[in-house]
Sequence to fold (163 residues):
Amino acid sequence: MKIGKDAVVGVNYELTVEGQKIDASGDAPLTYLHGHNMMIPGFESRLEGLTAGEKYDFEVPSKEGYGDFNENAIAELDKAIFLVDGTMSTEVFEGAQLQLTNQDGQPMVGVVKAIGEDKVTMDFNHQLAGKDLHFTGSVAEVREATAEEIEHGHVHGPGGHNH
Ligand SMILES: [Zn+2]
Fold:
């Protein structure tokens, strides 16, 4: 069958950005439920119509990937919030990835860009924001999702949820 809405898809993939390998599926293919926003939109739309065994090679522009780089997602935060018993947490250094909680209680992952005298500059953009993504790989498996998988919005069994 062809990849389309409500198909369970197993894909082998390699992601390169600006010539650098960023990510790849491991020994087992990545399994996901197609058409449920589990993958970035440009990835799902380009796989549509492929069948098991087919190879692919395509570029996903940033706007269909992790979005544009947003200047407003760079924040200067008071150093005080990073202090533990009056001293800077050892987890805070330039390049460190930190999970903070925003006013709404939502977790936000950001990278420490700079540590100033009383401010810490953090970038909450996705690390691949503004980047074009190059995917290569092959389709390992395509099958119809069960009614239960569609209801849950995820894949069950190997490579998926077990419950
Ligand atoms: Zn489930």
